[in-house]
């Protein structure tokens, strides 16, 4: 299920990455997507707000079931996009350049890939920070401290069984029929 959410997040998040890369490349030379500028900017801001809301909601709902922020952060980052984000952001960038009647350059595509990499790393750092903040705000300190003590004092499980426990199963004879 997480591969579906990662692909959907990559498709949706590709648009804000392409917009940010366009601003990094061209600055304020011209508006992005020509006549569709307002629609593109509204869609990009909506995607960013939706992703931030979903991450915050997932962090809040997941904070009840974990004892440590690293566990929650690992669960949240499992749903974040990785390399497909670079591919979808390249597609969005090419589409935005098509709206402007331009063809994307190789240098522009390289900048888009670098921006996608920076966004991926930034999303992971944001998820880790959000997990720590959520646990600090919504977890009872006494319960959190007690669970850390319980997990720290847990005995290591033995991987090998002793000879007595493996042979004890068949130690008695089978039942006799009368």
Q: How many strand segments?
A: 0
How much helix, percentage-wise, in residues? over 70%
| Spans where pLDDT lies below 50 across 5 or more residues | none
| Ends apart, CA distance between termini | 57 Å
Number of helices: 7
Order of helices and strands: HHHHHHH
Question: From the helix content, strand content and strand pairing, which structural class follows?
Answer: mainly alpha
Biggest sheet: strands, sense, closure?
none
Shape: elongated
Question: Any idea what the radius of gyration is?
Answer: 26 Å
Mean pLDDT: 80
Q: What is the strand content?
A: under 5%
Outline the structure in words.
By secondary structure, this protein is an all-alpha fold. It is 71% helix and 0% strand. The chain contains seven helices and no strands. The N and C termini lie far apart (57 Å). The model has no long low-confidence stretch (mean pLDDT 80).
SSE layout:
Layout: H1 2-26, H2 37-62, H3 69-77, H4 83-99, H5 106-138, H6 141-152, H7 163-167
Helix pairs in contact: 1-2, 1-4, 1-5, 2-5, 3-5, 4-5
Task: Describe the structure in brief.
The protein is mainly α.
Descriptors:
mainly alpha, 178 residues, elongated, 0% strand
């Amino acid at each position: 299920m997480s591969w579906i959410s990662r692909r959907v997040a990559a498709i949706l998040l590709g648009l804000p990455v392409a917009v940010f890369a366009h601003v990094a490349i061209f600055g304020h030379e011209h508006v992005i997507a020509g006549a569709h500028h307002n629609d593109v900017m509204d869609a990009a801001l909506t995607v960013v707000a939706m992703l931030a809301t979903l991450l915050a909601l997932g962090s809040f709902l997941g904070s009840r079931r974990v004892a440590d922020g690293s566990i929650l952060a690992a669960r949240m980052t499992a749903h974040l996009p990785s390399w497909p984000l670079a591919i979808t952001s390249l597609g969005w960038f090419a589409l935005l350049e098509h709206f402007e009647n331009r063809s994307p350059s190789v240098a522009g595509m390289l900048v888009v890939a670098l921006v996608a990499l920076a966004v991926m790393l930034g999303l992971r750092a944001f998820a880790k920070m959000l997990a720590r903040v959520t646990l600090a705000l919504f977890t009872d300190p006494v319960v959190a401290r007690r669970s850390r003590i319980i997990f720290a004092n847990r005995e290591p499980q033995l991987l090998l069984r002793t000879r007595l426990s493996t042979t004890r199963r068949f130690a008695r004879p089978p039942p006799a029929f009368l």
